[in-house]
Structures are given as structure tokens and as C-alpha cells.
Amino acid sequence: MTPTTGLQWPLDERGRRASGTPGQRIVAEALRPLDAEAADALQAERQWRHRYPQHWRALVQAHAARPTAVVASARAGLAAAWQTLPFVRAGQPLALADALRTPQRALQTLTLQGQGDPAPAPWTVPHQGRQLQGDSLARQIDRWEAQGICEPAHAQALRDCLAHPEWFDLSDQHLVLLGAGSEAGPLSWLARWRAQLVAVDVARPAPWKRIAATVQAGNARLLAPLAPGLPADLNHAGADLLTDTPDIAAWLAGLGVPLAVANLAYLDGERHVRVSLAMDAISATLCAADARTQLAYMATPTDVFAVPDPVVTAVMQRYAGRGLAKKLAQWGARLGSRGRGFAPHITERVDAGDFGTWGLVDALVVEQGPNYALAKRLQQWRALVARADGHRVAFNVAPSTTTASVVSNPLLAAGFRGAQAFGVEVFEPATTNALMAAMWVHQLRTAPREFAHPLKLLVHTANHGGLWRLPYLPRSVLPMAALMGFFKRG
After folding, report:
1. Least buried of 110, 125, 135, 156, by fewest C-beta within 10 Å?
2. Number of domains composing the chain
């Protein structure tokens, strides 16, 4: 049996490593500075796996209403996570902060150089069988904005990228990809834009052969870690974010250059929380070591977000403006589902005082579970904290995408196939890759925006595929979309 090492859940009273109660406690600690009563209710919840969405809403609503307390809440949540999950070394649990101060191995560096066309590749976007560029891409961007697939700032950023092809020469940028082989990640584009890449992924030959092939076909330079004492070749490249966290952080800090760090890794189930915390530990270490460190995140739209009043008004108007026939049909469906079907998406506004009026969009998919939601929330918290501490942060909500991890869930896969009937676009990985790579370039090349309400950072440039502007609570129509999708395969 392989001994337990690295970042782990704590042992419970039965000697098991379970995520439920510790994860619940982490979220409660983030909520406590805002609403102690709601935090106690969250901590006392006995059906966390099924009722976590209501507590997520309580947290985001409190954030929306009390903008000056948002960063303190995020710090509390991160502190609770760092204190809750130990780093196990030689069978002994260490506090994560202590483990980071005592790396055990000095990782070696493997260097790869692209052999392709030395000129930066022009940015294009593959979409539904076409390769969009120039005017055709500009028209598609206009359609996405007009249809509510993305927010206006996302569309404008893409137009800016079209207007500035010189931005895509990234030879002056050192870009760290934590989870470099991620299916929805930007590697395939960055490798063609002359970037100085630093790739971290698990030490297995198969992913590194794919990563190396991508890099060698392009014009980027790539650095990769490998364990000391091993041959410097692809068969030994890589390091494990979960077990080599302190060593990776020290290796990256030792590169001695300003780094922009993209947190991309995904793992199934409870491991997603652990790998998100591992990336957080590395990101926090680099931020502490160099004030020039930048962070980048690719968030999911299937979460709860606070959105400003223009979005709230548009959603409420769409629900109120349904035709009589649609209202009657949906009334019958709501009656038959005991009020669960075709529920209104936004029913009230949140008064943030001088910071304006906000509302909650709630696209949580209960089946994804609280671990998935917590893993993504850790990333939001670090983005808010790093921004408050003076670091540049690129935070982009990416549309729902047909990655292998998503379509492996039959309900989600069917729901995505049927989503078009409700005005939601689900993107292919190649399209998402192209859009998110360009968004990162935009945020590397332009001055950071100032936001009065800190939560604006999380939603300003969102491409949510239309989920957030649905008139209906997304999970109240997911069964209908899934039913349609089961008859619409392929």
C-alpha cells in the first residue's frame, strides 16, 4: 500500500479522511465574520451534501451586502482551509504553512524549445466547425454579447485583442501553468505565442509527451520540474502538486523572474479541493516572495455569483416578459413539480449601500457536489485577497465546456446538449481555450481595472454561456434540458 503523503484531509474520530465536515467548517469560517447566525446554521447542517446551495447563497448574499468585509471573509476562509488540511510527511501531519517553509528536495529543471514557425501565430477562434478571425470573429463576438452569452466587458476585451495583434508576442512574459495539461487550459495557444512557459503537471510520461509535442510544434520555451538525481528527459519530467507542494513552490520562487501563475489543475471529487489548496499554497508563497507575482484563474459559471444591477434588471425583465402561453405552460410545470420547475432566477435585490444594488445568479449544479464548489471558492478567495494585497489578478469565468470530466457525468452531458433550447451555449474545449488564452493576454497587456465593490472582479469579464441571464433558476430547468438532451445525442 502506498503511504499517505502530501496534502490530505484530517483524520476524523474513526480514523478516516473524509471531506464533508472539514469542508463545511471551512465555509462556515468564511461566513462567520459576516453573519455569525448563518455560520452557525451552516455548521449545524446535517444534510450538507444536498443542502449546501442554500448556504452558498447565504455566503454570497452577505458578501454582496457588505463589500467592505469581503476580503476579511476571504482571508478567514483561506486561513481555515490552511489550518484544516494537514501536509503529511513521513507519516506525520504538519501545518501547511510549516511544510511550505521546509521543502525537502531541490527540483531540477528540464528545458524544451519549440521548433515551429518563430513568428507569433495569429489569434483565431474555432467555433462550430469554422475558424473565425478578423471580421467573422468580430461579428461572432457581437452576437455573443447581443444574445447574453457573455458580459459586455468580455466582448470588449476580445475586440481589443483583435485590434492589437502585437499583444500576442509573449516573449517578455514568464507564464506558469499549474496543471499544464488541463484540457481547457491555454497551453496550445501560448506555445505558439513565443511565451516563456513554466509547466507543472504530474510526473507521468503520457501527459508530458502531449505537452512536449505541443511546445515543440510551436515557438515557446518551456521549463519543467523533475526530481533530483533523475535523467533530464520527458520520462522523468513533472512534479505532483499534492505531494510536492513545498518543493514546487521553492523551485518556482528560485527562478528569479516575475511570474504570472495560472491555476488550472482539476481532479475529481474531494481531490479537487486538495489540488486547489495546493495551487493556492504555491500562489501565496510566490506572492509573498515577489510583489510582481500575478495570478490567473479560470472559473466556472456553475456557481453562485453576485452581479450588478444591469444584469439583475435584464434577468427580471426576461422572466416578467414571458408570453401568456409560456406562462400558462410553465405554471402547469411548476405545479406538477411542486414549485421546483421554471423557478424565477432572481427574485430580489441586495442593497450594498454606496456600492450599488446587486443580485445573485445561482447556477450551482447540486450533483457536482460541495467539494467542487469549495475548490472553486478557494480560488475566488485567493483572487480577492491577492488583488487587495496589490497583485494583478486575471479572473475569468469560462463558459460551460464539453471537457471529458464534464461529459463523463450523464446528467450534465444531457443537460448541456439540451441547453440550447433555453438560449445557453455550451462551448467545445478548443473554443474555450482560444477565448480564455486571449482574455489572459488582454489582462497581461492592459492596466488593471479599479472596482468599488470587490466582487466585480469576479464577474466583470464573464463568459457564462448565457447561464447567468436565464430568466429561470438554471437547476430548475436542468431536468427539462437533460430530457431534451437524452434525445439529442451527438
Report:
1. 135
2. 1
